[in-house]
Inverse folding.
């Protein structure tokens, strides 16, 4: 019995240390640059300059389906599935735009890269794109994301924007910041583009 308890405590200790390591590594990961313009009660407004991304398109209609179909392809590209067999550092967040007609998933690439100095993906379904600069409204939530939690925060953000009289356009998008095996200190966001003339 003592041996069993000792082994169990050892495994728990290893698990806790692994989670601490993952959390610390996540916090050191390069994050897409942005500037906070305004902080409201339950959301904030940010300005994002353009960024270079690896993107796939999909017919998926849910967070889970898009993640399952897109993450592996994009991960393979940055882990050497490209014309130079080059390892490209993972950054955050992962962008997901789940639309009625088309959905996309994108990895933000390190700021040292642009469309001219990136290796070509081996998978032709991956495109390298440069995002447009934009103002966005952002609501943040913790834990593991799901279709339900994303939709719940989309509704809160949409109602908040209407209350503040802020106009927006396009789909509400999801940003995920953590690997799936990280259990603690998880960061999720729902964002939507705002009309820039409101901030001139």
């Amino acid at each position: 019995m003592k041996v069993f308890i000792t082994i169990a405590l050892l495994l728990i200790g290893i698990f806790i240390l692994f989670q601490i390591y993952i959390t610390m590594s996540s916090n050191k990961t390069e994050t897409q640059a942005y500037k906070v313009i305004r902080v409201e009660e339950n959301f904030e407004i940010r300005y994002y300059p353009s960024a270079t991304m690896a993107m796939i398109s999909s017919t998926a209609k849910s967070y889970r389906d898009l993640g399952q179909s897109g993450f592996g392809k994009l991960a393979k590209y940055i882990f050497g599935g490209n014309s130079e067999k080059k390892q490209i550092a993972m950054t955050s967040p992962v962008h997901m735009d789940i639309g009625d007609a088309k959905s996309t998933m994108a990895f933000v690439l390190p700021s040292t890269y642009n469309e001219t100095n990136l290796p070509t993906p081996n998978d032709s379904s991956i495109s390298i794109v440069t995002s447009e600069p934009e103002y966005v409204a952002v609501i943040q939530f913790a834990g593991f994301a799901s279709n339900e939690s994303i939709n719940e925060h989309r509704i809160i953000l949409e109602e908040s924007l209407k209350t503040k009289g802020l106009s927006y356009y396009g789909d509400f998008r999801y940003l995920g910041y953590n690997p799936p095996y990280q259990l603690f200190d998880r960061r999720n966001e729902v964002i939507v583009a705002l009309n820039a003339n409101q901030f001139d």
Summary: The chain has three helices and nine strands. Residues 3-199 form a domain with the Multidrug-efflux Transporter 1 Regulator Bmrr; Chain A fold (CATH 3.20.80.10). The radius of gyration is 19 Å.
